[in-house]
Amino acid sequence: MEQIIIDLHPFGDTSDQKSLVRTFRKAITQNGLLTIDYRNYDNIVSKRQIEPMSLIFKNYTWYLFAYCRLREDFRTFRISRITDFYIENKLFERRKKSYREIMALLNEQTTMTTIVLKVSPVMKSRVEDVFRKEDVSVLETGELLVNATFPEKEWLYSLIFSFGEHIEVLAPKELRQKIASKLSMMTKKYS
Q1: How far apart are CA 170 and CA 137, in angstroms?
Q2: pTM above the 0.85 mark?
Q3: Full pLDDT tens readout for the chain, 191 residues
Q4: How many CB atoms lie under 10 A from the CB of residue 60?
Q5: How far apart are CA 93 and CA 130, in angstroms?
């Protein structure tokens, strides 16, 4: 009988993804240079030669942190967007910066925006999963008021939409307008 089970994916890892993670881990430990075809968020595929540094598992998704020779900078690649790869017969000298150091630097340089959300009490558990306790207060109506700071990027819209009809963006006005615009475009598809 298994006493401890660690399931790193909500629906179970696919064998392809497990294989990729093993392959990239081997490249990291051996300082093996990789050439990848990578499809970015905007669906544009580019060929990259990368120096793999670390594997990161974040929000049910595997990422490969690497130094990208094309961009001449550190990048984080979502493994599910690596459409093809080749392990070069070349080694690289590992760079001194770590993932945590690079992320701390990026966070300092990222423009942050304070958002205010009103969330139905039926989503209390989800709110506790996503937001820090000190960012949440309870209104007299029982609704949850979230006042948090985030970078305004595409994933923020996905986060907000993941609450469905149980959330309302109160501020900033620009974010509220962008959400309304996206909802309008979505509604047209179902009309």
Answers
A1: 14
A2: no
A3: 677 665 655 555 556 777 888 899 999 999 999 999 999 888 999 999 999 999 998 877 889 999 999 999 999 999 989 999 999 999 999 998 888 888 888 777 778 889 999 999 999 999 998 899 999 999 999 999 999 998 877 778 888 999 999 999 999 999 999 999 999 999 999 88
A4: 9
A5: 38
DSSP character string of the chain: --S-----STT---HHHHHHHHHHHHHHHTTEEEEEEEE-TTS-EEEEEEEEEEEEEETTEEEEEEEETTTTEEEEEEGGGEEEEEEEEEE-PPPS--HHHHHHHHHHHS-EEEEEEEE-GGGHHHHHHHS-GGGEEE-TTS-EEEEEEEE-SHHHHHHHHTTGGGEEEEE-HHHHHHHHHHHHHHHHHH-
